[in-house]
Amino acid sequence: MRSRPARVLLLLAAVSLLLIALDRWTPLDPLRRAGSLLYGTTASLIAAATRIGDNADRLRALERENAALRADNFTRRQTPAAITLPDRAYRGLPAHAVGFAPGTITIDIGTGDGVTRDLTVLNADGLIGRVTWAGPTTATVSLLTDRASSIGARVPSGEVGTITGHDDLLLLRLLNPQAALTPGDRVTTLGSDNHRPYIPGVPIGEVIRVDPTPGASTQTALVRPYAALTTVDLVTVVLP
Amino acid sequence: MAVVLVLLAPVAQLMVIGRWGGPELALVAVVVLARAAGTGAVLGFVAGIAADVAPPAEHTIGTGALVLTFAGYAAGQLGARRFQERSLSAFGERSAAERSAASWVGLLGVITVAATLALAGLDLDDLAWQVGWNLGAVVACAVAVVGLSRRRMRAGRAVLRRRYA
Fold first, then answer.
1. What distances in angstroms separate CA B8 from CA A47, A169, A217, B3, B44, one per listed residue?
2. Can you tell me where the transmembrane regions are (chain B) (predicted)?
3. DSSP H or E segment with residue A169
4. Does residue B46 or residue A73 have the better pLDDT?
5. Which chain B residues are closer than 8 Å to A140 by Cβ?
6. What residues are paired with A101 via a beta bridge?
7. Is this structure's pTM higher than 0.90?
8. In chain A, which residue's Cα lies nearest the Cα of B73?
């Protein structure tokens, strides 16, 4: 005969295990959407309340215009002329970072505003990351410094490689081990198929150290991201 | 009250702790606020579900609920024993060490470390920091709770005096 608290414990533990099994089997997106609706909206409201000033509407309009111009700017001016740019206008959605967790930020726009998975997120300084999940009112952005992230990159000499997270910095691996690379070089995105998750030509960061690796099959370098990822506030989600 | 606090924990976690680093508020709240085994388990479950579904909700839903249910149960068990002992203290039959606030704080610390390890799973990278943050927060909160309930302290001292007089 078990006592009542022990029965409560077993029941709740069983429910938890059931949830874990269900989530593994078929992702419990309704629960996540409810969490996004409840907690995301609360966080957005609190964040909005803390930045209320006069002329909030005007500010909003300017933010929107700024975001669109920024998205356009990054892809038009900073892409080397050698790359044929698809003649399409990107649309930028302005968003505020309202939530922070290791490797991710939560932004205050969601599927209701047109955000879906695998969209590029940038700010005035450079690339922030990509949208990994979109809820009704908030979306989760995986930062480029996340350990699981891997981004196609290009350096000024035209060589291509990949960028992966490396603590607060980034690790650049160039496919060509003899590629010319010096500290100070600007690393930009290579762009993905169909422009998802990454559009081409967005500045990622600056090379700060080139690792001498004679005989290695790739050349590696440490890159410092241009965007200050822990103090990020206003960001732009690019709709290709 | 306790339920409201653990339901609000994810918001603060997201907006404040996520940016500057710190303890897992849900875990700290559950361990410090659990008063009895049964309600502690329920409190832990509610806090765990809230923390699981709050953005970014990247891990499997239910893991936080499972760990915090056990943490709440264990912390509540300590609370229950503490209450029983207080009622028994009239008979002066229990050892003073068992009853002391220090042992309560210490045992909460053990629960915290165990729960942190369970939550972290195999993600060992920032584990030392996380254990430190959570342990520090729980001990600080528990000490504050002990400090607030002076009556309990005085009762403890009276028992000590009676026992070693």
1. 15, 33, 51, 9, 13
2. 25-49, 61-80, 101-121, 127-148
3. strand A169-174
4. B46
5. 55-58
6. A104
7. no
8. A9
- Identify the closest residue of chain A to B64 by CA–CA distance: A16
Chain B contact set for A4 (CB, 8 A) = 38
Residue numbers in A near B58 (CB within 8 A): 101, 104, 132-133, 140
Of residues A129 and A47, the one with the higher pLDDT is: A129
Buried b / exposed e along A7-19 (16+ C-beta atoms within 10 A): ebbeebbebbeeb
Residue A24 at interface with chain B, using a CB cutoff of 8 Å: yes
What would the pLDDT profile of A52-91 be if each residue is shown by its tens digit? 765 677 777 788 778 877 777 776 655 554 444 444 667 8
| Beta bridge mates, A224 | A206
Q: Are residues A156 and A82 in the same domain?
A: no
Q: What is the pLDDT of residues A131-163, one digit of tens each?
A: 998 988 899 999 998 888 889 999 988 889 999
Contacts of B52 in chain A (CB under 8 A): 19, 31, 35
Question: Which residues of B are less than 8 Å from A15 in CB distance?
Answer: 45, 65
Asked whether residue A103 is domain-assigned, the answer is yes
- Whether A26 maps to a domain, the answer reads no
In angstroms, the CA B118 to CA B120 distance is 6
Nearest to A28 among B11, B61, B66 (CB): B61
- Cβ of B160: how many Cβ atoms within 10 Å? 14
Q: Are residues A194 and A122 in the same domain?
A: no
- Distance (Å, whole) CA B159 – CA B137: 29
Residue A198 belongs to what domain range?
Answer: 150-225
Q: Report the pLDDT value the prediction gives residue A179, as an integer from 0 to 100.
A: 81
Q: How many domains does chain A have?
A: 2
0.85 surpassed by complex ipTM: no
Show the tokens assigned to A20.
């874990």
Asked if B113 is an interface residue toward chain A (Cβ–Cβ < 8 A), one would say no
Same domain flag for A168 and A191? yes
- Note whether A4 contacts B: Cβ–Cβ < 8 A: yes
Residue B20 has pLDDT above 80, yes or no: no
Best of A18, A100, A147 to substitute, by most chain B Cβ atoms within 10 angstroms, is: A100
Distance, in angstroms, between B67 CA and closest chain A CA?
A: 9
Asked whether residue A177 falls in the same domain as residue A134, the answer is no
Count how many pairs of residues, chain A against chain B, have C-beta atoms within 8 Å.
Answer: 129
